[in-house]
Amino acid sequence: MRKHLLLTCGLVFLAALAPLHAQTLRVAMTTSDIPTTGGIPDNGSEGGRFAGYPIFDALVNWDFTKTDEIADLTPGLATEWHIDPNDHKRWIFTLREGVKYHDGTTFKADDVIWNFDRHLNEQAPQFDRAQARSYRTYTSQVVKYEKIDDTHVALYTAKPFSMLPYLLSRVFMVSPTQYAKISNWQEFQKAPAGTGPFKVERVAPRTSIELVRNDDYWDKTRIPKLKRLVLLPIADANTRIAALRSGEVDWVEYPAPDSIPGLKSAGFQIVTKPYPHVWAWHANNSDNSPIKDRNVRLALNFGLDRKSLVEFLGGDLHQLTDAGNVQGCEWVLRQQFLLQVERQDEEQAAQAQEHPGHGGQAGSQLREPQHREVDERVPASGDDPPFPERKGGDQAQAGEDEKRDH
Predict the structure, then answer these.
(1) Whole-angstrom distance, CA of residue 336 vs CA of residue 318
(2) Could you tell me which CATH number the domain at 73-178 has?
(3) Which of 73, 98, 111, 328 is 20 to 30 Å from 175 by CA-CA measure?
(4) Is 395 strand, coil or helix?
């Protein structure tokens, strides 16, 4: 059996390569535990793409049919949506008819209201107190919702908000009938019922999620070619590679960069794609912080060694544009920033830092490369690639720089 390796994936790659496999595909995820399977998946984006989109649908889905284009929104359980021309805070959704949940019941307008009550109505018996608040990123803009008729619902936002359909792509619909049989969200995760292309067959906490093909899926173009999909949480990159080499799994995410040459020489297939993942670093902008000064922020921006960062994160995979962005990553290139950084410019960094009130000699803090490492220790939560361990030559020679800055 040919083995496949996935570096940065969406389900689009799984679907594209599945015909080369047997009827069961075993995937090693980067998570330390299985994502929750009750329709509010945890573990970040990885939870959504493995325990969200395969099992459930939202009113608005993502179009994963084209591997050579950036995915955009596509109709899901709603066939159409638009802003009410008389009220720009009111969105009207036309619902898809004839859709069946995995338990055999029919999706309807009342279910949309029921599911939003799960997220937002603390007085509702199905309000999910354990998980709903963690999903407020996607639901907090919705302040009111109502059934118009059997095929239309309306969602209201606090103010005009054009991004609502994008957020709704993570608000998955589950079967109220299936929940009524269980009446407990924790237990519901063992036997959930969504409308997605895969059904949950077995959930083994901390071990695996086993999915089977939904032959009755409403979108016939997305009925899986696989019969079974087995998802295994393997947080450590070296352990994932060992599982791949031993035949325990068929597909892994995010191998350690230094393992790639060996995998290629052993005949494994490497699949890569630019991925718009963001690690957010929040600066201290309090009154006594130098970061509050615009010139200091400019200095930090111009002084950032983007080329070295890309090399550190696996720079053999992508090339930088003159603006310091990854080529082909239109998620970044689309944005129009007030400050367009054309290149790393140490002179501009020093000039920006030459400003009174920020340490002894003007510009002394940023004129020389610091060769400092930042040690970021975070639990595995999906989409966490393994960082290679590298030290610069100057750092190895300077005892002071051997210290890690936290």
Answers:
(1) 22
(2) 3.90.76.10
(3) 73
(4) helix
Beta bridge partners of 212: 199, 228
144-153, 326-335, 369-378: which is most confident: 144-153
Question: Under DSSP, is residue 381 helix (H, G, I), strand (E, B) or coil?
Answer: coil
Q: How far is CA 348 from CA 286, 293, 343, 363, in A?
A: 25, 16, 10, 11
* Total number of residues shown for the chain: 406
Q: What would the two tokens of residue 101 be?
A: 């949940």
Please tell me the predicted confidence (pLDDT) of residue 46: 86
Query: Angle at Cα 28 formed by Cα 25 and Cα 31, nearest 5°?
Result: 140
Secondary structure of 27-73 as H, E, C letters: EEECCCCCCCCCCCCCCHHHHHHHHCCCCCCECEEECCCCCCCCCCE
Both tokens of 359, joined, read: 């340490």
With pLDDT > 90 as the criterion, what percentage of the chain qualifies? 54
What CA–CA distance (Å, rounded) separates 198 from 217?
8
Residues 332, 336: Cα–Cα separation, whole Å: 9
Residues with Cβ within 8 Å of 331's Cβ and at least 6 positions away in sequence, in order, are 70, 276
d(CA 245, CA 404): 34
Distance CA 102, CA 99 (A): 10
pLDDT greater than 50 at residue 392: no
Token digits of residue 179: 């929940």
Q: pLDDT higher for 198 or 277?
A: 198
Sequence letter at residue 110:
D
4-57+182-271 CATH, one of 3.30.300.30, 3.50.50.60, 3.40.190.10, 3.30.559.70:
3.40.190.10
Domain boundaries, the chain: 4-57+182-271, 73-178
Residues 91/84, Cβ–Cβ less than 8 Å: yes
